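Internal ticket - ligand job 187, heme C:
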Amino acid sequence: MNQSNNPVIRFSRLRSLWFLAIVYVSIPSLACAGSEGPKLGKPATNQEISAWNMTVFPDGRGLPSGHGKASEGKQVYERLCVSCHGVNGLGGSSEELAGAKHSLTDPNPDKTIGSYWPYATTLFDFVRRSMPPDSPGSLSNDQVYAVCAYLLHLNGITPESADINASGLSQIRMPNKEGFVRIDEPE
Ligand code: HEC
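stdout (structure tokens):
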């Protein structure tokens, strides 16, 4: 049988041609990659970096300007949060945020903001970056401060009239602040 008519040999020749074609196309672009980079994207501007870099530290570093009261936060909560977290933060399809009845040592502990969270500043960070889950980042800084003021008030931590801002939030001492054991400290 004529070998060049053998379909298996024809296929492997075809494959070799493809291989050569790919090498031919890739070598110049690899050479370019060395000199000019892969040309993927562009360097981020300072403005773009600061839009993503929204970490709030426990001591309050990173908190933006703005402020809000519980009465304003209640409106935000009832419009955007109550469907999942329930009336007065008592829990619905999602976490309970207030109203703990069982302590953390109870077999069924209530891990609310008041009974569990060590820092009030984390509340701002968490809500701003992730809530409500279908449009994270959509709340203004004032709305986030206001909803924090409302949730802290529901937990009995701040008075209803408190106008919460960066320095006020950083100064709040949460009830469970000492309830965490640092793993990097010797016993
Ligand atoms: C569609 C349902 C939904 C809506 C609406 C919603 N949340 Fe949540 N929320 C969740 C879920 C689910 C979690 C748990 C997420 C996780 O653990 O990562 C959560 C977690 C939280 C937590 C952390 C609770 C904890 O102790 O771990 C806070 C605080 C919170 N949400 C606040 C809000 C606020 C404020 C709003 C309104 C602006 C809101 N959520 C709207 C579903 C929702």
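Auto-summary: The mean pLDDT is 86. The radius of gyration is 28 Å.
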